[in-house]
Every structure is written in structure tokens, then in C-alpha cells.
Amino acid sequence: MKLLFKICFWSIFLSSLSVFGQNIQWAKDQMLIFTSQWKGERFPDGRPKVSDDLVKRLANISIEEAWGTMKNEGYNNQFEGGWQIIHPDKVLAGRVLTTQYMPSRPDLDNPIKEKGKAEGRLGSPNSWPIDLLQYGDVYVADGYGKIVDGTLIGDNLGNSIYAKSKTGVVFDGAIRDLEGLENIDGFVGFIRGADPSYIKEMIMTCINCPIRIGRVSVFPGDLVLGKREGVIFIPAHLAEKVIINSEFIALRDKFGIQRLKEGKYTPGQIDQAWTREIKDDFLKWINENPKLLPMTRAELDKFMKDRNW
């Protein structure tokens, strides 16, 4: 069975590289294979649709806590650092829409442009993914690190991206019109660099396909969280677990810091496995401070039922 799955997996993957037999945007059945562990709502194209509530809460968790939970689940390559950041004082959080770019060659460029025209896509290929963005999406592009002539957007496309998504971008590539993009209040960009050149000698090859961003394999429908450290990509099926676990850890830390300041416990007591006395004190503290909960009380109770403190 495993061998059969691998054969089917790679057959679909390799066939997707042929622009003659496939659409520019990955088909729903291809999306379902790569995101089969997601059991929730989906967009019409098959991309996982993590709830708006979880996306909103995502912005408030720490990258370290998210990384720890995913590492425990076997996802060891989900973080990428070393970015130039547009508006580093703001957080980037949303659902991923992916696109891949490759170096140009005539027998690649021409069929893609013809296929795009046949599908009714307007403008140059680097604008096609932007047409698909919805509120809460983050445009994530594999531009293979190209800087000079690798500028995927300028301020015009940046304004369009923000108008549609209210988020920003993650580009393993470059942008132009940096000053103009910085003038878009709320737009957050993680980029490899900025250059005044126009995009040249590269072609957009697929939309909503698995891509590589540095050391991360990114799937459409993943959640992305970007902060000063860098960006972390969370598989859709782990989103709820990662977010609630991160929120719980932050809640524990807030309680522990308060009790340390009050002198009620020693650092040794807080940093090691909690005694029954501290656990009961924590639960009492939660009851007395319901407004501090980032999740619903029902979500917290369900989480703590299976929690090994």
C-alpha cells in the first residue's frame, strides 16, 4: 500500500510539471493529496481553510512555542530566518497561497503564457497569483533567491495585494519600489532584498503547488507566522493544536512570572514539574482572571484534560 501511494504521489507531482496537460493553478484532486490530513473546511479550489478565529489568534503566539509543538510532531524544517523585513514592527499572519518561479527559457515561457491566456488570465504572469488572493491570505513565492531582475512586485502590485488580503508577502526573491511598499500601512513583507530592476528572465510556473522557501517545504493552505526572528509555516491540520498549545504555555508563563514577582514560589518550583499545590493555584488564578484567556474556557478545559503538565 505504501509503495502504491508513493507511485501515485510522484506520478501526480511529475505530471504537474508539464504545463501542457495541467492548469497553471493546481487542480483540487492534487491539493487533496498533499493536504489529506486536513479534515476541515476548504476553499472551492481545495485549499484548506483554517478558521478566521485561529488565524487571528495566530498573530499572538510566539514562534518558539509554535516551533516546539511542531518539532514534537516530527516537523523539523518549518522555520526560515535571514530576511529583510518591511514593517518589522508588525506581525504577518495568515493562510498561505503559494507560487513558484523558475529561470526563463522559451520552451517554458511561451506555453505558460499561452496556457494562462487560454485560462482567461490577464496581465503578466507575476500578477496572476494576486488575482486569486482573498482576505487573510499571504502570498508566498519561491523566487529561488534572485535579487537583480528578480523583483516579483513593486508598489502597484503591493497595493493590490494588501487591498485583497490585508496581510503581506513572503518572497524568496526580491521587490522593487521599497519606499512605496513601506508607505502601505499594514503591509508586511519578508524578502531577500530590494532592487530597482524590473522582473526579467524568470517565469511563474505554478500557483498553489508545494514550494520550497529556504529549508521549508510549504504547502498551500499552511498558516504562516512572521515576526522579527523570521517566518514559520504551520501545516493546516496542526494549526489548532499548535495555537492552543502555544496559548497555554504563554498563560502558564504569565502565571509563573506573576507568582515569582509576588515571592510566592521559587524559580526552582516554577521551572520544574509543578506540584499539585501549584496546579490548583494556577486553576484558581485562571478562574479569577477569565479575561486573560486567549481561547474559550471550553477549549482550555478540553486541552487540559489531555495535558501532561
Provide tags for this entry.
309 residues; alpha/beta; Glucose Oxidase, domain 1; 2 domains; nine-stranded mixed β-sheet; two-stranded parallel sheet; 12 helices; 40% helix; 19% strand; elongated
Whole-number mean pLDDT: 92
The profile of the biggest β sheet is: 9 strands, mixed
How much of the sequence lies in strands comes to: 15-25%
Please estimate the helix content: 25-40%
CATH superfamily of the largest domain: Ribonuclease E inhibitor RraA/RraA-like
How would you classify the helix and strand content by structural class? Answer: alpha/beta
CATH architecture of the largest domain: 3-Layer(bba) Sandwich
- Give the strand tally: 13
Description:
The protein has 309 residues and is α/β, with parallel strands linked by helices. The protein has two domains: 2-235, Glucose Oxidase, domain 1 (3-Layer(bba) Sandwich); 240-305, no CATH class. It is built from twelve helices and 13 strands. It has helices at 2-15, 28-34, 52-58, 63-72, 106-118, 128-132, 155-165, 178-182, 239-262, 267-271, 276-288, 297-305, and strands at residues 79-80, 84-86, 92-103, 137-142, 168-172, 174-175, 188-191, 193-194, 202-207, 211-213, 216-218, 223-227, 230-234. The strands form three sheets. Strands 1, 2, 3, 4, 5, 7, 9, 12 and 13 form a nine-stranded mixed beta sheet that branches. A two-stranded parallel sheet has the order 6-8. Strand 12 (223-227) and strand 13 (230-234) form a beta hairpin. The chain is elongated. The protein starts with a helix and ends with a helix. Mean pLDDT is 92; it is low at 9-21. InterPro entries: RraA/RraA-like, RraA/RraA-like_sf. Residues 1-21 form the signal peptide. This is Putative 4-hydroxy-4-methyl-2-oxoglutarate aldolase.
